[in-house]
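I am still getting used to backbone structure tokens and would like to learn alongside you. Would you supply a protein for us yourself, any chain you care to pick? Start from the sequence, derive the backbone structure tokens from it, and show both lines together. Go ahead whenever you are ready, and we will take it from there.
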Amino acid sequence: MLSKKLEKLLNEQIEIESNSSYTYLAMASWCEINGMEGAASFFYNQSDEERIHMLKLFRYINEKGGVAITPVNKKPKMDYKNILEVVKAFYEHEKSVSQAVNKLVYMANEDKDYTTLNFLQWYVSEQHEEETLARTLLDKIKLIGMEANGLFLIDNEIGKYATMKKQTSVNMGNEDN
């Protein structure tokens, strides 16, 4: 059984994951409208992935005897200056999600809820991967540059990560993450 405080934090994480999905959906739309199909695919995939993360939490809370609460979503930012701003926002967002996950881990440890602590380890690993990926994308953008040809290369590079992540998930038997 979950403590009420941990149940509340897990429900807050559901909302964070749901808002992440909408944030990345908005980023995908911006990329698509601005002719960056590779980046759009990447952010559409990210949006789907965040929804799956939300559902995992939702089910976990209910399985542990708590009550999962359907999240309220905030309207995401829809307008960006350029792809660099989009990827910077992606990175900053992932860092904030990591902080929220760390808060959950701390509380599960304080409650001596080792089942939840074990469950959350997947999120800790996932956040490490997401932050690393976001930093890598930022590094590639800085390396390539933002000129016209650079934008084409950036879009292709980000698009490769969409394909790689999807293949890795399928190869590991994690189609549902």
